[in-house]
Specification:
Blueprint lengths: L5 E7 L3 H13 L6 E8 L5 H8 L4 E5 L3 H7 L9 E5 L3 E2 L4 H11 L3 E9 L10 E2 L4 H9 L2 H4 L20 E3 L1 E2 L3 E5 H7 L11 H11 L3 E12 L9 H4 L4 H23 L5 H29 L1
Parallel strand pairs: 1-2, 1-4, 2-3, 6-11
Antiparallel strand pairs: 4-10, 5-11, 6-10, 7-9, 8-11
Helix pairs in contact: 1-2, 10-11
Length: about 300
């Protein structure tokens, strides 16, 4: 049997219903490209693994403890057989043509190292995290602190993080792609080192994008095809599943997100700025972490 052109890797943690919907959507369009599907399970206790084995016998499942997004995806790196690898979230629904067209684009554009299609939220709007700029100090300040990209989304000065000044229907080069749909070559992953397991949750996709771009490749946002992204389930952001996510998990993931900010800055940006500025940036991140923790606690107890 020929080796698959594409390996779809799905990291799962207690999202059985969503995972089943995702796998069913892939199954509908699996003939578009010669592919394999691999599920890496992070210690789910909701019957996810049994469901996959019973309903999707051709899907390979690899189990382990909950080691986060980066290490969870890397768990299957030795088992991937495809020339291309698509990291796909279980809270996505694949539509007709998505697999075929994105694979074709990557195949035909040798200077492109990774790409994402257009991800659409349940309300029909663009998932803005699909295309992002690197979180440099200015971009982070305007996005997280002043939130000016919400007020002036189409400004090149203030709306850079989400590329609000570029029409969402335009194919264009970006700095970073979202891990919910991250298509790249296995040779590139092997070259740059897959995901950095120093990240537990969040920013590992930005870090991988940074290394792919540093290796000389373009990253592309390709909106000619689109798919649904429910988003935020594991963080407890989606109302339907919110009560299934305990406070401890919400806090762990939200705090890990801020820790990832600090790791990314220290790893990739520290050497570009004076020491005093770096100290100021780290202090700001630590303060932001306290604010985010307070917000998570307030949100949780308000729901009770």
């Amino acid at each position: 049997m020929s080796k698959p052109e594409l390996s779809i890797v799905i990291l799962n943690y207690n999202t059985k219903e969503l995972l089943e919907d995702c796998l069913n959507s892939i199954k509908k369009h699996e003939k578009e490209v010669l592919l394999e599907v691999i599920v890496s399970d992070n210690g789910s206790d909701d019957g996810s693994v049994v469901m996959v084995k019973n309903k999707f016998p051709r899907t390979r499942v690899f189990e382990g403890e909950n080691v986060g997004f980066a290490a969870g995806n890397n768990r299957v790196r030795k088992h991937v057989q495809g020339k291309m690898v698509l990291f796909l979230n279980p809270d996505t629904v694949v539509k007709k043509g998505v697999i075929k067209e994105t694979v074709a684009y990557l195949r035909e554009h040798k200077d492109v190292g990774a790409l994402s299609c257009k991800l659409v939220l349940p309300d029909g709007s663009l998932d803005r995290d699909t295309r992002r700029s690197f979180p440099t100090p200015w971009v982070t300040f305007t996005h997280l602190v002043l939130r000016l990209d919400r007020i002036f989304p189409r400004s090149r000065l203030f709306g850079k993080y989400w590329y609000g000044y570029v029409p969402e229907s335009t194919t264009h080069e970006v700095d970073a792609l979202q891990g919910a749909f991250f298509l790249t070559w296995k040779t590139i992953l092997d070259k740059v080192g897959w995901f950095d397991e120093g990240y537990y949750f969040d920013a590992e996709d930005i870090d991988l994008s940074w290394r792919i771009k540093k290796a000389g490749y373009k990253l592309i946002y390709y909106p000619k095809v689109s798919m649904l992204h429910i988003k935020g389930v594991t963080k407890g952001k989606v109302k339907k599943w919110r009560k299934k996510v305990p406070l401890q998990q919400r806090l762990k993931l939200r705090m890990a997100g801020v820790d990832s900010m600090e790791r990314f800055y220290r790893k990739n940006l520290w050497g570009q700025y004076p020491l005093i500025f770096n100290i100021f940036m780290i202090l700001g991140i630590r303060i932001f972490k306290l604010i985010r923790k307070a917000g998570v606690l307030l949100s949780y107890y308000t729901e009770r």
